[in-house]
Write a structure and sequence with these properties.
It is a single chain. By secondary structure, the chain is α/β, with parallel strands linked by helices. Helix content is 36%, strand content 16%. It is built from twelve helices and 13 strands. A seven-stranded parallel beta sheet has the order 3-2-1-4-5-6-7, with helices on both faces. A six-stranded parallel beta sheet has the order 10-9-8-11-12-13, sandwiched between helices. Strand 9, helix 7 and strand 10 form a beta-alpha-beta unit. Helix 1 packs across helix 12, helix 2 crosses helix 3 and helix 6 crosses helix 11. The protein is globular.
């Protein structure tokens, strides 16, 4: 018994790593002959060009989070073999579907896309989040962690048994060609890549520009999001207009990665940051906050980059200055392997489809 029909869901295509990986997986599942349906708030956004041919797309017409709680009616109408929850952000919607549908809910396979040990949470919020995390094994049949460190975290913080967790890395990014090349700085520059949202804390990187010894270095941040006005205000407030640019989302950031002196990721929390893996595969060093257990699984030695504490501006500036030094050797390009992620998901889905069929029989 195979999982012929996979149903998944998302809020929008505004450029998040979770949704980008979801579309890459869907493309591979379609290529393997499966049917895939994506329930989506709106298809507008930077990732719209990544929608794979053959994907059945059902738009709700509303991108709000609350609008996603109509998912049970779609499940009831479409009767998929498995429900794929693409990340932590969406697990409450999966929980609602499980509560509403009861035994009629298909097996739920969810991906752990962000750390569950959130350093940005205050004590009271952290207790509530941990209590919520411990409910996940009730409505998620199987959890996918992207690294062994994240799997260990799921066992510790969420109470998932080891036999209900699989470790499957995201498939490698596949970049489309940008219609026009990005104009990059001629000299040394720091590159940031990611959504302009609070989680990414680009304010840390912008403010670090004031403290660098390399006063001629510039900063380029590729991405779009709701924090753009606040970040532009911050740049102007500190007189950094000539040193900081925010040119928007790019389909293919690799040319900028290759040219950058260093790629920086300064988030409060992350899952398994693909930007770090890709930068190191190109031989570009990285500076990252200690935002996930997976960060140190990617940046494994000092020759690849620096992992700095979340709120330590002097450490961040020193790490950036290290890689802005023209005498500093760049890392040897790291090999990044794509371990048949999409097929491993299908094997997992098929296992649950077969079990459900046998139970129903």
């Amino acid at each position: 018994m195979t999982a012929e029909h996979i149903l998944t869901f998302a809020q929008s295509l505004d450029g998040g790593g979770v949704e980008s990986a979801q579309l890459r997986l869907a493309a591979d599942w379609l290529a393997a002959g499966r049917r895939v349906t994506l329930i989506l708030g709106t298809s507008r956004g930077p990732l719209a060009n990544e929608i794979p041919p053959g994907l059945r797309l059902i738009e709700r017409g509303a991108a709000s989070y609350l609008a996603m709680f109509d998912l049970p009616r779609y499940i009831a109408a479409l009767a998929p073999d498995v429900l794929f929850c693409p990340g932590n952000h969406y697990t409450s919607v999966a929980a609602w579907a499980w509560l509403e549908l009861g035994a009629a809910c298909p097996p739920v396979v969810a991906k752990l896309s962000n750390t569950v040990a959130r350093a940005d949470h205050a004590a009271l919020v952290a207790r509530g989040y941990r209590a919520w995390s411990h409910l996940h094994p009730r409505f998620i049949d199987h959890l996918v962690a992207m690294t062994r460190g994240m799997a260990d975290e799921a066992r510790q913080f969420m109470g998932f048994p080891a036999d209900r967790i699989s470790v499957i890395a995201n498939p490698l990014a596949r970049h489309a060609v940008d219609p026009a090349p990005l104009r990059l700085p001629e000299g040394r520059f720091i590159l940031g890549i990611g959504r302009l949202e609070r989680q990414k804390r680009w304010d840390r990187l912008i403010l670090a520009m004031r403290s660098l010894r390399a006063i001629d270095a510039t900063l380029v941040i590729l991405g779009e999001g709701s924090m753009r006005p606040a970040l532009e205000w911050l740049v102007a407030q500190h007189g950094l207009e000539d040193r900081v640019s925010l040119p928007g989302h790019r389909l293919d950031p690799r040319p900028a990665m290759r040219r950058a002196s260093v790629v920086a990721l300064v988030s409060d929390y992350e899952g398994v940051p693909g930007v770090l893996r890709e930068s190191l595969s190109l031989g570009t060093p990285v500076v990252t906050t200690d935002s996930s257990v997976a960060v140190r699984e990617i940046v494994t030695c000092a020759s690849q980059g620096n992992v700095v504490p979340l709120d330590n501006p002097p450490a961040l500036a020193a790490a950036l200055d290290r890689w802005l030094d023209p005498a500093q050797l760049r890392p040897v390009p790291a090999q990044v392997k794509d371990a048949c992620a999409s097929q491993r998901y299908l094997d997992l889905f098929d296992r649950f489809a077969a079990a459900t069929h046998n139970y129903a029989s």
